[in-house]
Design a protein that fits this description.
The complex is a heterodimer. By secondary structure, chain A is α+β, with helices and mostly antiparallel strands. Chain A folds into three domains: 21-151 and 234-290 and 332-371, no CATH class; 157-211, no CATH class; 294-330 and 375-472, Cytochrome c-like domain (Cytochrome Bc1 Complex, Chain D, domain 2), CATH 1.10.760.10. Chain A is built from 13 helices and 15 strands. In chain A, the strands form seven sheets. In chain A, strands 5-6-7 form a three-stranded antiparallel β-sheet, covered by helices on one side. In chain A, strands 1-2 form a two-stranded antiparallel ribbon. Chain A has a two-stranded antiparallel ribbon with strand order 3-4. In chain A, a hairpin with a 4-residue loop joins strand 6 and strand 7 (209-211). In chain A, helix 5 crosses helix 8 and helix 9 (301-316) crosses helix 13 (458-469). By secondary structure, chain B is mainly β. Chain B is 8% helix and 35% strand. Chain B has five helices and 39 strands. In chain B, the strands form ten sheets. Chain B has a five-stranded mixed β-sheet with strand order 5-4-3-2-34, with no helix packed on it. The relative contact order of chain B is 0.14. The chains are: A alpha+beta, B mainly beta. The interface between A and B is large, with 59 and 56 residues. Strand 7 (209-211) of chain A pairs antiparallel with strand 39 of chain B, so a sheet runs across the interface.
Chain lengths: 475, 554
């Protein structure tokens, strides 16, 4: 409360009164069971010149940990968890159900290891389905849903910024090859690459058409979607809107409001305007500013030495070709809404001015290394690219039956390994208890590295484990 | 909750209430919960200074053909002129910017460009370059596209007699086992008959292709569709999901005697025959001016909007009747699309409707209905000021009028029209050919302004081709677009509207869907596999090709 007062005082001294930006419901008694009690006018906030992080982050934190109740509109008796507003075929008599949902009433009830925003145990797995034709599944039969472990969100702001820059760069390359084909009057091909990661090739024709069948690891629209185990969500904002509906039955107006559904109570639970753009922005801001995972400090010498050796071997056996130690980031300004969201998620065109969250003001960002061009080196141990990760010889990761958002069942985005020392169990289903098991589960594009790991002597394999276990989410 | 929170909460509530109140007022005024797009008129600044005009014979007609005449995939415009010369305008609009056209020479002589009432594009010679069928007062013309917006009259080479009639309607279909299209022409009053114009409607004509030596096709014989009842719009349509399109004919009761709306069966290789009362066809007399067809409920049986003087009809196959007989119920009143009198101004006399077209102008995934309106000339019993309608589809299945709010309501007398994305920004723009007044060209700004347009819902533009086959543009095909559990379908058709046709990218609004599954039912009835495509782009689907190609405008 004291912290809130300080922030408000700061805002007042900066100009626009906080009361014009951040609001709380005055009619609620202090014992109210309503979890959503505050809102933020993001247009006013963007116009105020105030630091949006200071205003949004605390509200986002409260919302992330809040246990939503029916008083907030939790529950979606007449809607599925689908990303596109979809009515149920038959209503469930259960408000909560761990399969088709509702499967939680707080974000932090799953994202909580080792801290809020972190990963989840196997007990916190979710069953994800597009939710269109079989929305009311009540079985774990994999023909209806994919079982997934909870991802950690730490560092997600930097991940989204990397993805935005990579999307921009790839689209620029697409534009260039189209212009070249038009200018030369003949087909032209380009190998797509950004931040050292290749994404296949495009062939452009003089009439402005584009052949996309040779793309690799990215969607045809060249939007890099870095989030989820699958890599199918472009932004924290879109994911938040999706998740609020799927997991909690809290429907945001930017997708489920009357503009796109003809009703302000799409899920027919008697609650309108369950979550505003301002509240979504608060959740986004909190997630985007979560400190990135770090390395364990004060390790005993034996672990320190093993980790150092393991990191070298990690590179030598080519794990680092996909789990790239660091990607360079040009800009640390996180705009919300972002540049690549589409209708149904608030877009930059939907607001006068997007919020500009300057992540460079955060202490944990200041401590990140920079390259000789001044770019922040984001130590994600990932490439933000999707790969085929199972094959007939090793199908541990091919354990799903359903494609998701056009991505085949055995294709997943490279897991960022930062923080992996804090996020056991492992694998997209969270069913591998040790790092050794998860490494040996790699097939498909990672087969050679897995084989190389297998051939290492036990002490060398242990050193790789030591290295990976040194990557942690700080408590 | 601390003191500060209480202090600021009053403002929260006040702001919230004000916002709710403003939203309620807005909804009450527009009647639309669906977002209303803003249109701005840009004809003159776009370089289109053209008027359709003339005496009695040009009280009707006034059509436009929207198609790509130079192979750049952008829609160009051919506009009828009546007593004035028809003109061709090449689209040079910058992507996402203000509309811009350049008048280009068609290669036609002055006589051939005169007395034009309307036009429809199609590829009648299977070279994948769009051709043009030009409807005239006098000889109709089959213009073979040469590329680069040049045309050659091919009446002679095709053995086609363009006739001398007053032609006001056209439709075409590729019949099974025929490599070239069957052409249907709708004619209006036979002015040469005694007693004209009353009760002297001309017969309509059907031309079937005839293969000669070396596969040289000709159209030597016209089959008369008699009686004709002063037709103003025709459409080959698969009304009963049989795979065999019939010809729907909308007729103007003003001149016929004993006439009615018509439906002709056109069985392959056999003479056409009209559906009669014994076939279930019900007598309906309207001032039929323009047909618009869409399958609103995706049951495979299209609905038909029929413009008229007074109320617009919206016909749906009667669910209580045997679906093999053409018994229709009028659902226009239930859905709010009667559009029977002007929605603004003081003039409460009945409206006069002409071109009609279902499209999705706000990209919310719901079909909207545009109707061009305008007094015939000076009919005193009908509204003099009669603005065009823009009826936005709503999630409750009904439609809401937003013509004034969208900025398309004018005091001009609309006739032909078309909606197409001229600047390739994903928002359908609108061209309206007015009688005795300049062509109107509206740019769709979405939720933005003329300085900066802004998107509404997500969208998808689909072009389908059959390379190396007859019927390159797949006339008769059906495009099915699925988002979530929702499917919308649109047919590739040549015909309908009022003397106005278009061919090119077919536009779909996707609402909040980020991707879609597209399937094609090709003209021979074969379904394609599903094409997985992302929103907000142009895709080209060629028959037999595994993956859709994308198109990016410059």
């Amino acid at each position: 409360m004291i912290r809130n007062f300080c922030r408000a005082t700061l805002a007042l001294t900066l100009g626009l009164a906080l009361s014009q930006i951040s609001h709380a419901d005055p009619d609620l008694p202090p014992w109210s069971e309503k979890a959503i009690q505050e809102d933020v006018d993001i247009e006013a906030l963007a116009a105020s010149g105030q630091d949006p992080i200071a205003v949004l982050q605390p509200l986002g934190e409260r919302l992330f940990s809040a246990k939503f109740t029916t008083l907030d509109g939790a529950g979606r008796p007449d809607a599925t968890g689908a990303i596109v507003p979809t009515k149920v075929r038959r209503q469930s008599h259960l408000t909560f159900q761990r399969l088709a949902g509702l499967d939680a009433n707080a974000c932090a009830s799953c994202h909580n290891e080792p801290v809020a925003g972190g990963s989840g145990a196997f007990t916190a797995n979710v069953f994800v389905s597009e939710g269109f034709t079989s929305a009311d599944f009540d079985t774990i039969d994999p023909q209806f849903s994919n079982e997934r472990n909870t991802n950690a969100i730490q560092g997600a702001g930097l991940i989204e910024l990397l993805a935005r820059e990579m999307t921009s760069e790839l689209r620029k390359q697409r534009k260039n090859v189209l212009a070249k084909a038009r200018a030369n009057g003949r087909p032209e091909q380009i190998a797509l690459e950004t931040k050292g990661v290749s994404f296949g090739s495009l062939t452009a024709y003089p009439d402005g058409t584009l052949e996309v069948s040779e793309l690799d690891g990215i969607d045809d629209d060249l939007t890099l979607r870095p989030f989820s185990q699958k890599g199918v969500f472009p932004s924290l904002r879109q994911f938040t809107v999706n998740a609020m509906n799927a997991h909690h039955g809290i429907q945001s107006t930017e997708r489920f409001g009357s503009k796109w559904t003809g009703t302000d109570d799409f899920d027919a639970d008697g609650h309108t305007t369950e979550m505003t753009p301002g509240q979504i922005s608060a959740l986004v801001a909190w997630q985007a500013t979560l400190p990135a995972p770090t390395r364990k400090e004060n390790l005993p010498d034996i672990w320190q030495q093993a980790a150092q050796k393991g990191e070298e071997l990690f590179g030598e056996i080519d794990c680092s070709s996909c789990h790239i130690p660091a990607l360079p980031l040009e800009s640390l300004v996180f705009y919300d809404p972002g540049p690549f969201d589409t209708a149904g998620t608030l877009r930059q065109s939907d607001v006068e001015t997007p919020l500009a969250l300057d992540l460079s003001t955060l202490d944990w960002v200041k401590s990140l290394p920079r390259d000789d061009q001044g770019r922040v080196l984001v130590p994600l141990f990932g490439d933000l690219k999707r790969h085929k990760i199972a094959d007939a010889a090793n199908d541990t990761f091919g354990n799903e039956l359903l494609a998701q958002r056009f991505v085949a069942r055995d294709v997943f985005i490279t897991s960022e390994l930062w923080g992996i020392g804090s996020t056991a169990p492992y694998g997209h289903r969270g069913d591998l208890t040790t790092l050794n098991e998860v490494i040996l589960a790699h097939g498909g594009d990672a087969t050679e590295s897995r084989k190389a790991y297998s051939k290492l002597a036990e002490p060398d394999r242990q050193s790789i484990i030591a290295f990976l276990r040194s990557l942690e989410i700080a408590k | 909750m601390n003191k500060l929170s209480f202090t600021i909460s009053g403002a929260f509530l006040a702001v919230g209430m004000a916002a709710n109140s403003a939203q309620a007022d807005e909804t009450a005024r527009s009647g639309s919960l669906a977002p209303v797009p803003a249109f701005v008129e840009e004809a003159l600044s776009a370089g289109i200074d053209h008027t359709y005009d003339g005496a009695w014979e040009f009280f009707v007609g006034g059509g436009t053909a929207i198609f790509d005449c130079n192979g750049d995939r952008r829609p160009d415009l051919f506009v009828a002129g009546g007593i004035n010369q028809a003109q061709l305008f090449q689209n040079v609009s910058p992507t996402g910017g203000a509309l811009k056209f350049t008048a280009v020479d068609t290669g036609l002589g002055a006589k051939q460009s005169g007395k034009v009432l309307g036009a429809y594009p199609l590829d009648f010679n299977n070279d994948d370059i769009l051709d043009l069928v030009v409807l005239r007062l006098g000889e109709n013309l089959l213009l073979e596209g040469q590329g680069a917006c040049k045309f050659e009259v091919s009446n002679r080479s095709l053995g086609f007699d363009g006739g001398r009639e007053w032609t006001t309607a056209f439709s075409a279909i590729f019949e099974p086992d025929l490599d070239y299209p069957t052409l249907a022409f709708g004619n209006y009053v036979d002015r040469s008959k005694p007693g004209a114009p009353w009760g002297t409607c001309h017969d309509n004509f059907l031309f079937r292709p005839k293969a000669g030596e070396n596969n040289h096709v000709t159209y030597p014989d016209a089959t008369r569709l008699s009686p004709g009842y002063c037709t103003l719009s025709i459409l080959f349509t698969d009304w009963n999901r049989s795979g065999e399109p019939a010809l729907r004919v909308s007729n103007d009761r003003h001149y016929y005697r004993g006439g009615e709306e018509q439906l002709w069966a056109v069985p392959p290789g056999r003479p056409p025959r009209p559906y009669r009362k014994a076939d279930g066809w019900q007598h309906l007399k309207i001032w039929g001016m323009g047909i618009a067809s869409i399958d609103l409920d995706v049951d495979g049986f299209p609905e038909y909007a029929l413009t008229s003087m007074g109320d617009t009809k919206l016909q749906k196959l009667d669910g209580e009747s045997d679906e093999t007989v053409p018994v229709y119920q009028d659902i226009a009143f239930d859905l709010g699309v009667t559009a029977h009198r002007p929605y603004s101004g003081e003039d409460l006399k009945p409206s006069t409707g002409w071109h009609s077209e279902f499209q999705d102008v706000n990209n919310d995934g719901l079909w909207d209905l545009f109707i061009a309106k305008g007094n015939v000339e000076a009919m005193p019993d009908f509204a003099d000021i009669d603005p065009d309608n823009l009826l936005l589809g709503q999630w409750n299945g009904k439609f809401a009028e937003v013509g004034d709010k969208a900025g398309i309501g004018t005091d001009r007398r609309g006739r032909g029209a078309g909606l197409a994305d001229f600047n390739a920004d994903g928002l359908l723009d609108l061209v309206v050919v007015n009688r005795a007044a300049p062509v109107s060209l509206f740019r769709n700004l979405g939720s933005g302004t003329s300085e900066q347009s802004k998107p509404l819902g997500n969208w998808l533009a689909v072009d389908i081709r059959q390379p190396g086959k007859a019927n390159s543009r797949a006339v008769g095909a059906k495009i099915s677009v699925k988002t979530g559990n929702r499917t919308v379908v649109k047919d590739i058709q040549v015909g309908a509207g009022h003397a106005s046709g278009q061919m090119g990218f077919v536009h779909f609004g996707l609402g909040v869907a980020e991707r879609a599954n597209v399937r094609i039912k090709w003209p021979d009835g074969d379904w394609s596999h599903g094409y997985r495509v992302f929103a907000n782009g142009h895709v080209i689907i060629e028959r037999g090709v595994e993956k859709a190609r994308l198109w990016y405008p410059e």
